[in-house]
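Notebook, bench 3.
Goal today: get a predicted structure for Threonylcarbamoyl-AMP synthase from Alteromonas genovensis so we can plan the truncation constructs. The sequence was checked against the plasmid map this morning, with no discrepancies at the termini. Length recorded as 322 residues. Pasting the sequence as submitted so the record is complete.
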Amino acid sequence: MQPTTPILHFPNDLAQATAFIKAGECVAIKTETVYGLAADASNEDAVRSIFKAKARPATNPLIVHIASIADMKKWARDIPSKAYLLAEKYWPGPLSLLLKKQPWVSDTVTGGQDTVVLRIPASNDFLSLIKAAGVGLAAPSANKYKFISPTCAAHVLTSLHGRIAAVVDGGRAEVGIESTIVDVTGEAPCILRPGPIDRDSLKHDLQTEVTFKNNEGLTVPGSVLQHYQPNTLVKMLSQNALVQKRFTKGEGLIALSPCTWPLEKRNHIQLSSTPKEYGRDFYDALHQLDKQGLSCIYIEALPNTDSWFALNNRLSRVVALG
């Protein structure tokens, strides 16, 4: 554990970040989705340090970030043609592929499962660190377990300051929600975690049916019921309930509809009505309101359509109660 967590900037601090990785330390760094907490995926002690920093259960597997499609063979075996098709189409990008792991890949990375999840991130900073370190980097979101995912360096420090070696400030994550995870080990591809790459796109590219899996017997990142949650209580309101709601001084709102509710400006955030822009800003809005010391954050319910499916998945976990 570090007494303080320094903020680095690339390219000037690439050598320092690389030295931390080679020493088995964790470095938070931007991907295009959210900030990830990176460590050497071939070093069991380094991977354990991720779980320790995040207070994350050891049975929860990590995504391994690689630099090229050719690197898939190092980490995975029996790679089907559909995996290469999707990799060629979407990498670098917000798509993660679940594959059968190579025998040497540590159970520490895979949560004891015989599969490994791989991705090439669309982030120049992250790719430069992978290449400089010369190893695959395991990297879940750079936050305490179940807390709001970070989309900027300041969000990382909210929960991990003093717990990791460094954070590389690469600006704001462009996508804002985590990658789509697709299981390509079976006959039919299955989406294990919805994300920016939707089912219709995958069906079009693969020219086959793509299903959603219930995850029975299989744990993947982001699959627990309670996740992405602020310290403040969160409740969801339908548009009709929102119109009738009388807000008090200590309450906040993330709205989709244009509104004139009597709330302090800093406690009222209106996000875009397009899924792409809403997803980019959603976690940041939660971070903003969580700092206000509110009694409750209300979130207006999202449309129940395919284009909002991934965001409804995240929202359902944000408002899930124990």
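The two ends are 30 Å apart (CA to CA). Residues 7-178 form a domain with the DHBP synthase fold (CATH 3.90.870.10).
Flagging this for group meeting.
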